[in-house]
Amino acid sequence: MIVGDGVGFAYPDSAELFGGLDLKVAPGEVVALTGASGRGKSTLLYVFGLLLRPGAGRITIDGRSTTELDDAELSWLRANRMGFVFQDAALDPTRTVLDNVTEVAVYRGQPRATFIDRAQELLEQTGVQLRAGARPTQVSGGQAARIGLCRALVGDPSVVLADEPTGNLDLVSAGQVLDGLAAAARGGASVLIATHDPRVIERCHHAVDLDRS
Ligand SMILES: Nc1ncnc2c1ncn2[C@@H]1O[C@H](COP(=O)(O)OP(=O)(O)OP(=O)(O)O)[C@@H](O)[C@H]1O
Ligand SMILES: [Mg+2]
């Protein structure tokens, strides 16, 4: 569960991108975040994903206010409660695809083996068919996007933040990504998706439009 109350943010020496924003994504809910390019969708996901601190307001994760937490406590919440799908996938080219997907093990201080079965299941469900030792430099852009999704979901997070996860995918692959996000929500996750994609918006429970906030 993720709740933002009166959230505001501005980059240094820049105008406020959003302010006084109230946004709640309940467990099981899938919410679309829309708005023109450059409006602040990715930034809002970074703020709600605890990667940037808000300039105003409060983010609450699973009932726990994050305002008072130090960087180590925020990192713990990110590793144990949250899954983030980056707009550009952001895979580590020096590691195999499977190592990328099981990266959460490192942040949780658990063996990678704990996450291998789930990682393989997610790669299969999202239609990424790769040999075991494949590297991110050897996959297509669309495959990289789905690998990034698998990495976000492998730890069964209670909050999933996805930044244009269907951005460069064909119809079938986009459907597989949406199925993955919908399955996470059915499992009880709160899912927030920044998107321009009408195929995504129509499958969300509702949409929050930054252009109207
Ligand atoms: N690190 C940064 N420092 C200063 N300004 C930034 C930084 N990152 C982004 N911006 C600016 O903040 C604004 C919002 O960017 P953001 O990436 O959040 O938009 P977006 O809605 O995700 O756009 P898109 O749909 O193109 O992905 C833009 O004007 C951008 O130039
Ligand atoms: Mg963006």
Summary, kept brief:
By secondary structure, this protein is α/β, with parallel strands linked by helices.
Structure, described:
- This protein is α/β, with parallel strands linked by helices.
- Helices cover 35% and strands 22% of the residues.
- The chain contains eight helices and nine strands.
- β4 (56-61) and β5 (64-65) form a beta hairpin.
- The two termini are 21 Å apart.
- The structure holds adenosine-5'-triphosphate (ATP) and magnesium ion.
The helix/strand class is alpha/beta
Question: Which stretches of 5+ consecutive residues score pLDDT under 50?
Answer: none
CATH hierarchy: architecture = 3-Layer(aba) Sandwich
Task: Write down how many β-strands occur, each being a DSSP E stretch of 2 or more residues.
Answer: 9
Most strands sheet: 5 strands, parallel
Bound molecules: adenosine-5'-triphosphate, magnesium ion
Strand portion: 15-25%
Shape call: globular
Q: What topology, given as strand order, has the largest sheet?
A: 6-7-8-3-9
**Regarding quaternary structure, how should these chains be classified?**
single chain
Distance between the termini: 21 Å
What's the helix and strand layout?
Layout: E1 2-9, E2 18-25, E3 30-34, H1 41-48, E4 56-61, E5 64-65, H2 71-81, E6 82-85, H3 97-101, H4 104-108, H5 113-125, H6 141-153, E7 159-163, H7 171-186, E8 190-194, H8 198-201, E9 206-209
Parallel strand pairs: 3-8, 3-9, 6-7, 7-8
Antiparallel strand pairs: 1-2, 1-4, 4-5
Helix pairs in contact: 6-7
The chain binds adenosine-5'-triphosphate (ATP) and magnesium ion.
